[in-house]
Amino acid sequence: MKKVVTVTLGSSKQDFEFKTEFLGQSFSVRRLGADMDTGKAWELMRRQQASADAIGLGEISDHYHVGLRTIFNKDTQHLTNVVTRVPVTTGATLRRLLQVRAVRYVQKELGNYFNNNLVLFLSGMRNYDMAVALSDYTKNLSFADALFQTGAPTMLTSLEQLELYAKGSELMLSSRTGRALEAALSNFKNSRVASVVAKSHVIVGTFAEIKAVGSPANLEGKTLITSAVDDERMAFFTKCKVNLVVDVSPKLFDKVVGINTIEAMILAALEKRQEEVSDDDLAEILDELDILPRLLHPTGKFRNIRRFAFVIHPLSQSYIQKAFPIPKSTPKYVMDKIETFAAHMPPMVYCKMSNIVSPTGAEAEGWLISVGGTPKEMLSRSPEFTYRRLLHAAKIAEKMGAQIMGLGAFTKVVGDAGITVARRADLPITTGNSYSASGALWAAADAMRRMGLLTVNRNKKVAAKTMVIGASGSIGSVSARLLAMSFDEVYLAGRTLSKLDELKASILKETPDAKVFTTIDYNELLGDMDMIVTSTSGAGKEILDIMKVKPGCVITDVARPLDLPASDVAKRPDVLVIESGEIDLPTKVKGLKSIGLPPNVVYACLAETIVLALEGRFEVFTVGRDTEWEKVKEIYKLGLKHGMKLAAISGVKGVYSDDDIAKVVALARKARLNWNGGHSATPVAAKRAVKPAVKPAARPMPQKAVASKPTTKAAVKKAPAKKAVARKSA
Are strands 580-584 and 64-66 parallel, antiparallel or unpaired? Predict the structure, then answer.
């Protein structure tokens, strides 16, 4: 039977002895406490080496391996040097491997858990390898070594600073003066570190270190990375309402033992000294034992909180007046100066949102960060002016611990629509346009239901004609596929007839009974449409003549930037133009200040950022002007998964109320009494506009049905030499 003794500077009242099987051998394990007396510890180790097969040394400062340097602790070296007959270890090598494996495991198991976390190391030099591992996921690392050892009133904030400090501390702290300095001002140092603990997301340290600076006031909701958590320690963490404890030391036996004990047992089993066992040897044993860190939840419920940031800005001078105490009577020339000044102001945090809880149990919190430029100011300057402010906002978000940042309002269309910002920023960026497009289509279906101008046929299709302008594009093509399954007739409009015909053929394979038309001269067909989806990249060009649109038509503008300017929309109060569908959050959010929407309702682009955070998808999701339909579908499904609901329908003037929609319906009914289809086409011209895809002899079409598809003579296919501009397939 192998005999392993652990000598620790801890209390002798916790001494124990047990027998167990380990690595196929029988072991007797004994703990001996020295009650913080290094002389007693030295004597215990000297005596026990006569009968032990290996000795572990615990609860003492270890040697530090920082960068390429090894810093030796004289007390530890003095104690280990007394053991000459058997292997002796502090567990440093095994601890290093277990720490790194624990970080990798948690990051994968809990879904990007450490991404951009604020991590505080109570001793960075002792946990250097873990810090290197965490640096793969976050730059927000801070180290309390300098404060604890010298009283310096600041944290080290990078691995480079830690390595530089380690070079100087080796000489300074080895002297008697250095040791006295380290022991002095303990109350000041603990209170200073305690304030940093309160701001951090993750704290790394021994139980003694954590207990010295922790309390229910600053540990509630935190993640702790420590080792050898027993019942007593767990009770303290429960009292402090800690969210998650990552215990890097596995519980291999009924009794909780330190990592030094486990490494001593491995050395005894291998009958080798510490320097004879490589990292690969230990890693092989860890794999053989299938050792994983313990994830403990002191409160009984784990809260996986993800964090986001979202950029907003004033849309006009009136928004600036609402945000600051500026009198409404302020002259315009003064407001112009204020508007320019606001555009040059640095980004600032507008508010913090919290308590966004998904039905899946995931949680999100985040910050709205305001940049001062109005659309007018952004347009009057080069895109670089706005890029720099957005990158500044990204830095602020990163320092606060945000894991993804969304661009709102005009910031997502300036320049290349987020591509440059995503490339330069350290945080993943999304414009939210995928969910904006999804929300707009969602809102359109709801709007048509609320307007009550259409009926549903026996085949469960809506008795209506719909058109998709920009149908060959990514969003337009799938919008057309969806409409073909739900509406009587779908018109595919665009610039290239061959692409439209390819899309039509594809739709008919999926929905054989659909009635699909293609056209490149669509303005003359607008007067017959009950619903129109615009999804182009017109970038300021006129997409359609809104004066030809049928009263009561629902136009869904899913293009970003928008296809229809506000000036055009204002010309037709009898037409409902939808820009987006706003989203109701799954739980009552806390801390959200006014953003011009009802309580608990957010813009779809902000909702996309929140959904990605809840899902743990910290990636560049939607940037550029070509929104991908696959992402539109994906974010819609993810939104449903996380409890997002359609809350409101928005147009150029904001949210449509039931009264607003009722007014549009009333005006539409009145206008239809004298409506001539938006053109002066004769029934003959209308009859010749759309040619059936099947032979008339095989499937005759009544005169009245043909006449219901009006167009102009310019669109009529008169001879084979001329290219058809409107085609039908039944």
Answer: unpaired
